[in-house]
From TrEMBL:
It comes from Flectobacillus rivi. Transmembrane segments: none annotated. This is 3-oxoacid CoA-transferase. It holds the Pfam family CoA_trans. Belongs to the 3-oxoacid CoA-transferase family. Belongs to the 3-oxoacid CoA-transferase subunit B family. InterPro entries: 3-oxoacid_CoA-transf_A (IPR012792), 3-oxoacid_CoA-transf_B (IPR012791), 3-oxoacid_CoA-transferase (IPR014388), CoA_trans_fam_I (IPR004165), NagB/RpiA_transferase-like (IPR037171).
Length: 448
């Protein structure tokens, strides 16, 4: 069995050259090769194209490269979480390309498998698809995405043997597994290196043939950024809680459910084990439990898509981001509940971009909106100035076309029987006249 060279973080950083395309694993700071990236930040290497879900947090991981001006272009899914990335994009300091999270993961998997590209329904009809080839396949518009490869991949695994076989811990697979296959040079940062044979073949996630170098580096609380611990101090207004409870009422035993950021996340607090509802999080977990009661963070627990540490219920499973979005696009998620900025009479959804702000945060919304069997959107009925969010036609950039099944606002519940926007329920202490006055869209009334 071959032995994979073990090198220092400094030696690894020296292997990255000016102008390289660098794949950086991790979801936020979970499973992030932070020691490799920080070593690279101490070099003079520049003009990098950085590809990852994001560029880490301010001054952490790829965030250090960004602050140093070493990144020329960033390609990813959710840069909004790093204010430095937003500033760099707005100022023109870096070029950027935004891809839906599942599309990014699949493009990396395709690149690693020697596949030139693929068609996906995700992003069809949106700004993301602008300039890309599209085709109607089985009656559905699909967008062509090229496979992605890099010159170098920095990835993070939990354990390696001396032959380069890797095993990951909890939700730390995320983008790491696909990136391990998709670069000319793969450098794995790991918590521990053990003799070959000490990892049971059943638990090897990345075979050693993909790995060129190993670096042993211990992760610490400081490396985990905002996922280091749980903040349980959230306060929820009565109207938000009403929307949460109404969304929860749509779920049934056995449903596989994905919860978006904001109001949808609150649904998790209502789910009890006896409800039989299985929570899916797109960064690689099925069977999500509540936040840990002991205040522990990502050192001890998996994290969800909001980068919040959670517990794992009996029967839970972990996987990588590419497999996670294959579940979504393949129709294996029964219900997605997500927030919205606008919904319209045709069931179109806009929830990822606001005029005047950089389009830096699509995340997994497009994949979920087009892939889930049922889509529930929660949103306040109007902006603070009274402008309706339930509109005749969406004016904000679309997330997906004709996908919304149920709209829950702080005033009312709408459905789309026969494709028509229909008022089916009023929220407590809300009158029909109030809903009519505050709704810009035309709707049918079928109150029970």
């Amino acid at each position: 069995m071959k032995q994979v060279p073990q090198i220092t973080v400094e030696a690894a950083a020296a292997l990255v050259k000016d102008g390289d395309v660098l794949l950086g694993g991790g979801f936020g700071m979970t499973g992030n090769p932070v020691h490799l990236l920080h070593a690279l930040a101490k070099t003079q290497t520049k003009n990098l194209t950085f590809i990852g879900n994001n560029v880490g947090e301010p001054n952490l991981g790829g965030g250090k490269l960004l602050l140093n001006g070493q990144i020329r272009k960033m390609i990813g899914s959710f840069f909004t979480s790093n204010p430095d990335a937003v500033k760099a994009a707005q100022s023109g300091q870096v070029e950027y390309e935004l891809l839906p999270q599942g599309t990014l993961a699949e493009a990396i998997r395709a690149g690693g498998a020697g596949i030139g590209g693929f068609y996906t329904p995700t992003s069809a009809g949106t700004l993301i698809a602008k300039g890309r080839d599209t085709k109607i396949i089985n009656g559905q518009e699909q967008v062509f995405i090229e496979g992605i490869r890099g010159n170098v991949a920095f990835i993070r695994a939990w354990k390696a043997d001396t032959a380069g076989n890797l095993t990951y811990r909890m939700t730390e697979q995320n983008f790491n597994r696909a990136m391990a296959t998709a670069a000319d040079l793969v450098i794995a940062e790991v918590e521990e290196i053990v003799p070959v044979g000490e990892i049971d073949p059943n638990f090897i996630h990345t075979p050693g043939c993909f790995v060129d170098y190993l670096v042993e580096a211990k992760v610490s609380l400081e490396d985990l950024g905002s996922s280091a611990s749980v903040n349980r101090g959230k306060k929820v207004s009565e109207s938000r809680m009403q929307m949460t409870k109404r969304a929860f009422a749509e779920l049934k035993n056995g449903d596989v459910v994905n919860l978006g950021i904001g109001i949808p996340t609150l649904v998790a607090d209502l789910i009890k084990p006896e409800d039989g509802i299985i929570l899916h999080t797109e960064n690689g977990m099925l069977g999500v439990g509540p936040a840990p009661e002991d205040g522990g963070g990502a050192m001890d627990y998996p994290v969800n898509a909001g980068k919040i540490p959670v517990t794992a219920l009996k029967g839970s499973s972990y996987f990588d981001s590419a497999d996670s979005f294959a579940m979504i696009r393949g129709g294996h998620v029964d219900v997605a509940i997500m927030g919205g900025l606008e919904v319209d009479e045709k069931g179109n959804l806009a929830n990822w971009a606001v005029p005047g702000k950089p389009l830096l945060g699509v995340g997994g919304a497009m994949d979920l909106a087009s892939g889930a069997k049922k889509l529930i959107v929660t949103l306040t009925h109007a902006d603070p100035d009274g402008t309706s969010k339930v509109v005749p036609t969406c004016t904000l950039p679309l997330t997906a076309e004709g996908v919304v099944d149920l709209v829950i606002t702080d005033l009312a519940v709408f459905a789309y029987p026969e494709g028509k926007l229909t008022l089916i329920e009023l929220m407590p202490n809300v009158t029909l006249e109030e809903v009519r006055a505050k709704t810009a869209a035309q709707f049918i009334e079928k109150l029970s």
